[in-house]
Amino acid sequence: MNIQLKGARKQMRVVLFVKDSERGLKLVDDREWDAAMIATLEHVNYLTVHGEEYQTLEGKLNLDAGQLELLVVKMNNK
Q: Theoretical Cys-Cys bridge with 33: which of 13, 23, 26, 37, CB 3.0 to 4.6 Å?
């Protein structure tokens, strides 16, 4: 998969939500990703954010908000 973003904007806002069995969805991270980082999602199942590891479950391209939303679950690595 070769992702090429057109124009001056070479980044996309990516928002991570964690699926919590007690509280539902909770925002974990919200930042700009470049095209290379977005392309790696095709090859990875796990992300490390703020020192915590999460498994990616699914993603949604929200055109109305102009962002990629990823649903993740926290891994218990203790």
A: 37
